[in-house]
Amino acid sequence: MIIRQASIADREDIAELYRTVAGNVIGISRRPHEITDTYVYSLLNKKPADIVCLVGVDDNDRIIGVVHGTKSGLEVYSHILGDLTVIIRPEQQSQGLGRKLSLALLEHIFNHRPDIMRVEMEVITILKLVEAFEFAGFVKEAEATNRIKNDDGTFSNSVLMAWFNPNFNG
Length: 170
Description:
By secondary structure, the protein is an alpha+beta fold. The protein is built from four helices and seven strands; from the N terminus they run βααβββαβαββ. It starts with a strand and ends in a 6-residue tail after the last strand.
């Protein structure tokens, strides 16, 4: 897998990948009907200072994974990259690609984004997912009870996690 910055030209492929994994709360929280072309277009059209978005592509330049986080646009939170999202094609999950993309995002921030102090994310309380992000350097900050409403009407807890950029200079 080759990891590179996403571009607006990747919009359709990213939207298709999102739709493939949407609706699986373990994958991402957005439901299929919430993945619109407008959503993906607006994500990729954010000012470069407000987003970090990387894609993983295979040997045929097919996008097999995406990782992104965004800034809220509020000045008091300008040091935070939030809503971290990692998506991997279902047939290629459990091969370490999500970990590679996540580590690449953190490395990119470490090397190129001294304006970001915190990277925040929320993950469903499943031990292997929490441990995977702890491996990448994230720390658990809180657990939210019944935060996620599952497709079957039940609820799951989520863990709020953060990574701190040692190269922050803001």
